[in-house]
Amino acid sequence: MRRAVELAPGDPIILQEVSHTFLTAGKDEQAIPFLEMYMEQIPDDADNWRDLVRAYLRTERYGKAIPLLEKLAGINPRDPASWSTLAGAYMAAERYVEAREAILKALRLDPNNPTFRVTLERLDELLEPRGTRGSGEVRPRPP
Length: 143
Known about the structure:
The chain is mainly alpha-helical and about 140 residues long. The protein has two domains: about 1-60, Alpha Horseshoe (Serine Threonine Protein Phosphatase 5, Tetratricopeptide repeat), CATH 1.25.40.10; about 65-130, Serine Threonine Protein Phosphatase 5, Tetratricopeptide repeat, CATH 1.25.40.10. Helices cover about 70% and strands about 0% of the residues. It is built from eight helices and no strands. It has helices at about 1-5, 10-25, 30-40, 45-60, 60-75, 80-90, 95-110, 115-125. Helix 3 runs antiparallel to helix 4 and helix 7 runs antiparallel to helix 8 (about 115-125).
C-alpha cells in the first residue's frame, strides 16, 4: 500500500483506498496521515471528514476532532447526530459547558432521543456546583 502512495503521491483515489484499508483493519493511527492527505486534495468530501473525525476520536485526538466537528455541525446545523457527536468530543476534552450547549442543540432537533437526554443529565451532574452553594462558582465534577 505504501508503495502505491510512493508511486503516485497525492493521488486521492490511492490515498482514499489506503486510508479505508487501515480503517477497516482498525488501524486508525496509520489511517490518519492518509485521511489528512486526502482531505488536502479533496477538502469537501464529507465522508472523509467523518472518517477522519472518527479516527481522531478513537485515538483521543480531541483537539483535532473538535474543529472538524464544529465545521460539520455548521454545514448541516439541522443534523442532531452532528451536535451529539460534537457534545461527546467536548465531554472527552472536559469542555463541559460547550458540551451542554451542543447536546441542547441536538435535543431541540430530536427532543425524544433518550441518549441525548441521558447525556444532558450527565452533563448537568458534571456541572453541578459542589460545595459552592451560594457562591455562584461552578466547578466541573470529574467523570
